[in-house]
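Researcher: Following up on the earlier apo prediction. This time include the ligand. It's LYUYDEPV, with the SMILES given after the sequence.
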Amino acid sequence: MASAFRIALIQLAVTANKVENLTRASKLISEAAKSGAKIISLPECFNSPYGTKYFPEYAEKIPGQSTESLSKAAKDNEVFLVGGSIPEEDNGKLYNTCTVYNPKGEMIAKHRKIHLFDIDIPGKFKFKESDALSPGNTLTVFDTGFCKVGIAICYDIRFAEIAQLYCKQGCGLLLYPGAFNMTTGPAHWEILQKARALDNQLYVAAISPARDETASYIAWGHTSAVNPWGEVIAKANHEEKIVYADIDLAYMNEVRQQIPLQHQRRHDLYQVL
Ligand SMILES: NC(=O)CCC(=O)C(=O)O
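Model: Understood. Below is the ligand-bound prediction.
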């Protein structure tokens, strides 16, 4: 299997019309596949506006309308597809859930956001995802044949331990479907991706919806990918766009040899279990 491959990060313009979101996502997935992408990711909450008042209305069982559409898109285009996330309903509870498909359209992973986005920055920004959602309780790694990929959703990027565990499990790429906002986005979105990439010497990408100034939650956008040296290698502004990044695992291994963190850890003093 090739050690270099292309990924596509779809900064989708999400609207209040679910069918329109699904149709647009499928069209852009197809365009990305034609441009050579082998792994394609959608943003957090790609089928619904992001907000606690929308989650109950847009929530679906899995499998359901949105995941059937993702499965078909993966199969039709023969790609690995990371379905951003959707509000999921299961047993009377709601989750922020990412599903992943192989090139045959089979669902190979289902990941529920672990850390719910509950923050309060007085006078600037407040959000309480736990008003509507329940947290997931599992970490998720899947294999693509190119490399192992770790998944976490948005706010989860702030918890360095998840990335460390994924690195320990052999991931070369971490994907974070996310939707930062106009307060924390400019302050932290890129720095967090660089931090996770540098700490673990691997590729990191974060995939946002496009910005909609009329929405109740305005996403920062700036979908991007960072390499194991901590450099931003691909980046959108805030409009709808497919961002392509070339992942080179030989380069990742070079960086790991040059700065051999993996062999220098003092496990006698600390450990990520
Ligand atoms: N959807 C989210 O989890 C947003 C996270 C965010 O904006 C942050 O600052 O963290």
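Model: DSSP finds seven helices and 15 strands in the chain.
Researcher: Noted. I'll compare it with the apo version next.
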